[in-house]
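Hi L.,

You mentioned the student needs an example of a multi-chain input paired with its predicted structure. This one should do, with 1584 residues in total across all chains.
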Amino acid sequence: MENKIYWGSYTSNELANLIKEDPVVVLPVGAYEQHGPHLTLNTDTDIVLEITKEAVGKACSTGIPCALLPPLWLGISEHHMSFSGTITLRQSTLTAMVFDILKSLARHGVKKFLVVNGHGGNMAALRYAIDEVGAHCEVEPVLVTYWHLVADLVARLRKSEFGGISHGCELETSLKMHIAPEDVRKDLLRANVVKGNEYWSPEMFASNRVAMYKPYRQLSEYGHVGDPTKATPDFGEAVFKAVVAELARLITKMQKGDLENENC
Amino acid sequence: MENKIYWGSYTSNELANLIKEDPVVVLPVGAYEQHGPHLTLNTDTDIVLEITKEAVGKACSTGIPCALLPPLWLGISEHHMSFSGTITLRQSTLTAMVFDILKSLARHGVKKFLVVNGHGGNMAALRYAIDEVGAHCEVEPVLVTYWHLVADLVARLRKSEFGGISHGCELETSLKMHIAPEDVRKDLLRANVVKGNEYWSPEMFASNRVAMYKPYRQLSEYGHVGDPTKATPDFGEAVFKAVVAELARLITKMQKGDLENENC
Amino acid sequence: MENKIYWGSYTSNELANLIKEDPVVVLPVGAYEQHGPHLTLNTDTDIVLEITKEAVGKACSTGIPCALLPPLWLGISEHHMSFSGTITLRQSTLTAMVFDILKSLARHGVKKFLVVNGHGGNMAALRYAIDEVGAHCEVEPVLVTYWHLVADLVARLRKSEFGGISHGCELETSLKMHIAPEDVRKDLLRANVVKGNEYWSPEMFASNRVAMYKPYRQLSEYGHVGDPTKATPDFGEAVFKAVVAELARLITKMQKGDLENENC
Amino acid sequence: MENKIYWGSYTSNELANLIKEDPVVVLPVGAYEQHGPHLTLNTDTDIVLEITKEAVGKACSTGIPCALLPPLWLGISEHHMSFSGTITLRQSTLTAMVFDILKSLARHGVKKFLVVNGHGGNMAALRYAIDEVGAHCEVEPVLVTYWHLVADLVARLRKSEFGGISHGCELETSLKMHIAPEDVRKDLLRANVVKGNEYWSPEMFASNRVAMYKPYRQLSEYGHVGDPTKATPDFGEAVFKAVVAELARLITKMQKGDLENENC
Amino acid sequence: MENKIYWGSYTSNELANLIKEDPVVVLPVGAYEQHGPHLTLNTDTDIVLEITKEAVGKACSTGIPCALLPPLWLGISEHHMSFSGTITLRQSTLTAMVFDILKSLARHGVKKFLVVNGHGGNMAALRYAIDEVGAHCEVEPVLVTYWHLVADLVARLRKSEFGGISHGCELETSLKMHIAPEDVRKDLLRANVVKGNEYWSPEMFASNRVAMYKPYRQLSEYGHVGDPTKATPDFGEAVFKAVVAELARLITKMQKGDLENENC
Amino acid sequence: MENKIYWGSYTSNELANLIKEDPVVVLPVGAYEQHGPHLTLNTDTDIVLEITKEAVGKACSTGIPCALLPPLWLGISEHHMSFSGTITLRQSTLTAMVFDILKSLARHGVKKFLVVNGHGGNMAALRYAIDEVGAHCEVEPVLVTYWHLVADLVARLRKSEFGGISHGCELETSLKMHIAPEDVRKDLLRANVVKGNEYWSPEMFASNRVAMYKPYRQLSEYGHVGDPTKATPDFGEAVFKAVVAELARLITKMQKGDLENENC
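Structure written out for the whole complex:
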């Protein structure tokens, strides 16, 4: 049987066969929230969908049993609600969704799950959900926020200073320039770098020593934080390719059971 | 401003402007569940996504302020869980999702919502959700299950007898033949007509006098109910076009406030 | 053992015996809400109690094992709360009640349940409850809203036009004239016919193509919708007798297992 | 306006007037649970309904604004579930019901509520509910378990020793002999006196120093505890009349605001 | 193995051994709420902690297997929230905490639990929690509010009249004078005796015939109720020693299984 | 007014004054879970309580308005439940507790909260709770896990290799040797270093790229992970002092509002 990318493009009988091969099922989770004056609301969902599509396709093409679920296209965005159009779930709703999906598949015998997150605000609820699934479904789900896979590459290639990559920033704008340039309002790019301090920074790659709740209006009058004026399609393409490669590698290792080993 | 189809393809500032025009926001809800040996799991979601995309596009093109949300791609499918691959939400989870989405948009000033359902099993939870939104958000949402808009046309054109249109049936198979023929396993079509009785029938257009809970395994050893052997791309196209036209008309009437009037 | 009507009029040991006979247990659900200037708040509960009492009595008298629970006397009436005196449950509360009752009896071995509804506003929550029971209790409950059993007779005998039978209407007023004439304020009858439109009508027998949430104040300044001036005790009696006969027949068929068959 | 007993026997407009008189609204709560070999499942509900009906009627007849709601006919009976036929709510369900009812009426302006309990197992959930209502509805509900109003009279008139009045006991059996003798299986009366110890006793009038959870099967192989062989219709009548008088007096004092005073 | 007082002062392996001895595990529950001008917020928690520490120590020293959990230091204090500093849980939160703790230990094989309460406002939620644990964990928890163990001694020794022992009163102030005199503001003692009436009194040892919800501001402009001017360290010491002795005796009887017997 | 350490050692009126000074309120959160053969169950709670007591005392002594709440002594330990004695909350319970406490104090006007966590397993639930408080209480809580404040010092002083500091490890054992040597079973120390891999490691200071749910039995047959054989009281003391100093500094900066600034 030729492997397809989407769980939904199989029939039930075909899935019964796929499940026997011990596949990794991938669930992308994004957001539908404001991203400043220059990016569209679909930014997080769009990015996470494109990278998982490519990554699952790549893993499939090397014979690794895996499949992609459609994205959960909205997440936890209460802190962005003062900017128009933003849609948010309660944390309990997102948690319930992830639990129900993984629980359903666990009932059919799926053992390996990779939840790929594309929105910082989802982290607490997704980690909470993963712990619920682990505690009650007898499977061991893995959660990754995509940029954590490419910290080194981003550090090497970024043009903005610390505080320039956060939300609607050099990184997200570059990724959208690569994936969907029609969603970038190029005439509205402006820098809004917020460095933070020794305890906490909104910078995506900060190692924060404390966690805080910040309504976004306090960090930005425009809605975004970071420096989208430094964004380029080339940086976007480089990040995109690196994330896809890393995700495909992670899926492969999960499917082979290597994630359980010290020398993985 | 040119109207786009997707809510997510606007920036926050653009949506602030769109909201001033009193748009109809459309939320499609599908399912990810088994559809017999011949149809893929994405059937309901795929259909409801394609029809809402066309319908919103059509309404937009005539200047009606409206926008489409991405689909809730899974629904209530507990009664299908004995068939592999099916994913189900608890009813409380689906209800919470719909509530959170509409509540978020209501906070931004959106007043008009059309929830378009593509799966029979979702009806109770969606109606429940609509009532929660109505009671707590000071908006008046409208819920439609797409086939209820084209009962007459289907009655006129269908080839199968009563009981032939239900689940993975003449209608759904025809729609998929039109929209995504690669998802139809044509060599695996077989009839499984279930007429029901004077109280209850699984037929999609039955006027049931009672409601019952039926695990699908009791209705079908294959997973589907109805007669997909009667399905044709032509019937699929005719239904598709009619649903799109009716949805666009409904969106238009909602936006103009005509749904409040007796002579609408 | 002589069969009694009420579950509560048996001792525990007697019920252990009754349960061995595979009885149908009937749960009536009403409402305690305003019904315009001319009908009392108990209207829905009173009607559904009287019809189930008669119907269970009738079935019992022909030797069919069955029993009646007391009514859930209040339901979902949030949309009537702007009219004084109305009591409403949250939907989650009604759902929990029905679940707990049926689950309790399922634990004792009861397999057959008929929930008889007398209030339109309860439909979503009751259907939701039935689906929860079906999914978690290994029984197959049946739900009926009483007027759905006598659509033909009502169509034949009604005097009011379309829109005349809805809430505190020709039908409900006639039923109360038959059952409890002291609850009808005959000097306060006035017509308030609301026809609705091609999508939705409050008429009880409308085949609505969409579902909407409507605060009742929008439909009626008086509280009722329909034409109680056309009500007569004779029409009430005819409907009452027909509903009772149909319910007794349904209970009988359920007890014999005929509802599972196509030729029932 | 002549005062009626039942809230449900008024129209909405009539209730708007009644509410202006600052009525006491009475909510009886019973149970549907096993009561040994000799009493029917409706025992608690039947008793609490009859006493509240008489008491509200008596208060009404002296011009005190008050009204009776239908009973919540089932309560918390998990500890009786090993005896057939028993129906139980989860505690959260009963709490939600009482909250919803009192909250609804508080929204209409009702300020005075008397919840009359007839089942020991309901006490925790009802007290919990009363505290929720008090904390969130700006009214001050009163809760009474009926036998607490007549401790002195019972002590004077009872024939059974300590441990003889508990569940399906001298008191409940006597009350049913008075109210509904057809529900007493007189040939099946047997004593099952459980005295308990210095910490805890199932005796209805014990001043227990600790609270415990006891599955009823541990206290009684028959289902009841106490001595129904001592029951008489005369004792039942005396208790009934005393409870009614005390309840009517309590309603009267509540309505006049005397319960707030030290010299009430 | 020498018995220690605290569950937390054992290692996991040591607890595995202790559990084999069928220990009584004691959970103290207090409150963090205002106690008038003269007592600190820790009053209830401090008292209940000191008495359980002494009592468990005493039982341990006589070879009874038992252990103490740290206190739940806050409880249900919504009715005190108009006085600054008070912290309250929702009732559902306290119930969940007690349930989770007892359920966890029940999973390890602990069978005997004694919940020792030090705050009147916790009673409904704790009784509710005990019933949940009893219904779902196959253990039989015991709940005691400490002053119920020493009613006779208090009656004999108290100086204040009825209404003088309630909240921040003669009894609590005396106990704090004995346990932690630095927490008593001796210059701010004033009497605020509230007798109540025949139905309800805030007096700690009243046999109330009804339950009511009372915001504390209605009972006291100062925050406390009762007569702390009558408090003495000697009374505090006498009560303290009596409670400790009674608790140690109760733990001993529970561990030996005597609480199940009539002659305990 | 002399500042005290504990919130509970003030009266209500004194707290009303303290709140006017805009204090930082500190809430320690620990766990009651197995820590291998050599450490007691109170390890996390004991540590977090001692460090917060010292830190608040230190800040108080320099005139910074602040106060300490008693610890939440148990947390999320489901993954440790296969080791005897462990107590766990559901995540929803811990979240509710933190929410209720902070919400109560926010109602009195407290604006600044520092939640100090001492258990890795609590992170998701605490972050979730912080986000709920931030979204609903109009305050901005700060969350810190204590070891994140002293990463540099630990790196400098530790003797164990990577994987040696995790759970019941060099760090926790050293801290207990300093704080409570009687809780360390010195004869039972043994190394169980788990390095993990490039994606995930149980090492406390690992920068994990993915999150996983791991039942602890999979990581350790003994219960602990890391190398307690390298533990010394001196290392414990150094870490303890550094954490205390950092916490006091953080409290001071929070109280002065410096955490909002880039140059803090």
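You could point out the following to them. Strands of chain F lie at 24-29, 66-68, 112-117, 142-145, 211-212. The two ends of chain F are 29 Å apart (CA to CA).

Best wishes,
N.
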